[in-house]
Design brief:
Layout: E1 2-3, H1 10-19, H2 30-45, E2 53-59, E3 68-74, E4 80-87, H3 94-98, H4 111-123, E5 127-134, E6 143-152, E7 156-165, E8 169-178, E9 187-194, E10 198-208, E11 215-227, E12 231-247, E13 250-265, H5 267-270, H6 273-279, E14 291-306, E15 317-327, E16 337-351, E17 354-367, E18 411-422, E19 427-439, E20 451-460, E21 467-474, E22 482-483, E23 486-487, E24 492-498
Parallel strand pairs: 1-3, 4-6
Antiparallel strand pairs: 2-3, 5-6, 7-8, 8-9, 9-10, 10-11, 11-12, 12-13, 13-14, 14-15, 15-16, 16-17, 17-18, 18-19, 19-20, 20-21, 21-24, 22-23
Length: 502
Amino acid sequence: DFVGFGVIPPAHLDTMKKQVPLKAGQPRDRLLVVATHELALNELRDHGFPYAKVTTNEDDGPGGKEARLSFQAEPGQVALFGPVRISGNKSVGDNIIRRELTFRPGDLYQRSLVLDSQRRLYRMELFQFVNVEPEPTEQQPAEVPTKVTIAEGKHQRVNFGVGYGTEEKARVDAEYHHVNFLGGARSAGAHGRWSSLDRGLRLDFNQPYFFRPHFTLGGEAQQWYTFTPAYQSIISGAKATLTHLAIDGTSWAVSMTSERDVSSISDAVLADPTLRDELIAIPGLDPRTGEQHGTLNAMGFDFQHSTADNLLNAHRGYQVAFHAEQAGRMVAGTFNYYAFSADGRHYLPLSDRLVVASRLQIGNVRPVGNDEVNVPFSKKYFLGGATSIRGWGRYEVSALSASGLPIGGNSLLAFSAEVRAALRGNFGGVAFIDSGNVWADSFGFRLNDLRYAVGPGLRYQTPVGPVRFDLGYQLNPLPTLLVNGQPQHRRWRIHFSIGQAF
C-alpha cells in the first residue's frame, strides 16, 4: 500500500504503481523492497517535494508466512528551484554551463530535471566530471539552492588508429578534435583516412545554440575518394546542416550540399578490353573518356529517433532514420534527381542473455526525366559486406552489367535479423539471416530477386564495442557475378570488424 501519496497526480501515481518491482505473491526480497522505496521517494521529489520522506512498514502477519508492506509518505513543503552556484570551471564560461541546465530559478523542483541537466553537461564532452545537486542545508527553504560542480577535461584531442578488416584490408585513421574551438562550446576537427575502399580528408565545424537553444549549425568540407569494383569516385565540396534536437533521442535536420563529383572506370576494368566497351556504354559515362563529372547541388532533410539503450551494443529499444534529398531544379547543377532512404532497427530482449535484433532498409533514387545522366555514380546503391548482406563482399550485391560486374543501382531493399546470445565472460555468439538486393531502375523492387545469406558469428565485448567475426553463406548466389574480373563461385565470406552489424 502507498499512504500519503495524494499530492501526486492520480495518473502519475497509477503509473508508478505499475512500475514498482515488488509484486504481490512473490517471495520477499530485501533488494526489491529497497528499490520500491527509492522509486516512491523519487516520484515525490519529481513533483516538487525535495524534502519528502518515505517510511517502509512491514507486517509479517499472524503465521509469519505473508508479509504486508506499506510505504508511508511525508511529502513536506512544495519547493522551487533557487539560485544556481557553479564551481570548477576555468575556460568555460558560466553562461555556457547555465544554458545546458533544463531548469531555471523559480521552476517547480523536479529531480528528473537535475539528472537531465547533468547528462546534458556530460554530453558536451567539455568536462571530465559533472555533479548537479541541491546545496546542503539544515533548513527546508522554499527555494532550493543548487550547486553545479565540474572538472574540465582536455579540449584538444588527437586520435590515431590502425586497423584491419576483411573488406577494406589495412586501414589508417587520424583525427584531431577541438571541443571548445574559439570558445562558446564550438567544436572543430579534421579526419583523415586511408584504406583500399576509401580515403581522403574531412574538416568539420559546429556552432551550438544557433540563435535558439536546440539548434546547431554545422559545416563540413571534404576531399574523398571511393573505390568500387567498376569505377572510382572523387568528391570535393562542402555541406551546411542546421540540426534541431527536439528531445532526447529525436532530431531533424535540413542541409545544403555543393560538391564536384568525378567518376571514372577503375584501372582494373580499363585493363580488360572486353569490359571497357561494356562499361562506357552505361548511361552517364562519357564514351570518349570513360568518365562522368559534374556539379552536385542538393537540399536534404533528415529525421532520426532512437530509444536504444546502448549505441554500441543495443539490447532493447529501436532506431529509425529517414533521409530525403533533391538535387538540381531549385539549386541548379549538373545532376537532377530525387532520392529517399529509410533505416529501421529493433532490439527485443528475450532474457538477460538473449536479444533478437532486426533491421529494414529501403532506398530509391529517381533521375529527373528518367535520364540516368542526372544521377552521379557516387549516389548509386550497393549491398554486401559486414554491415549489410554477409556472405557477399562489399559492393558485390548490385545491379550487374551484362558480363556480371557490379555497377550499382537506383533502388535498394534489405532485411536482416539475428539472435545474439551472451556465452561466457566477454564472449557472445549470433545466428543471422540477411536478405536484400539492388535494382538498376528507380522503384524496381522485386521480392523474387532478393538474395539470402545465413550464418553464425562470434563476439568479444570491448570498451569500444564488440569485436566481430561472422561467417556468411549464400543461399542463392549471383551466378554471373564477377569479383576482381573473375567469375565468383565461392558461396561464403568471412567478415571481421569492430561493432555490431546493426
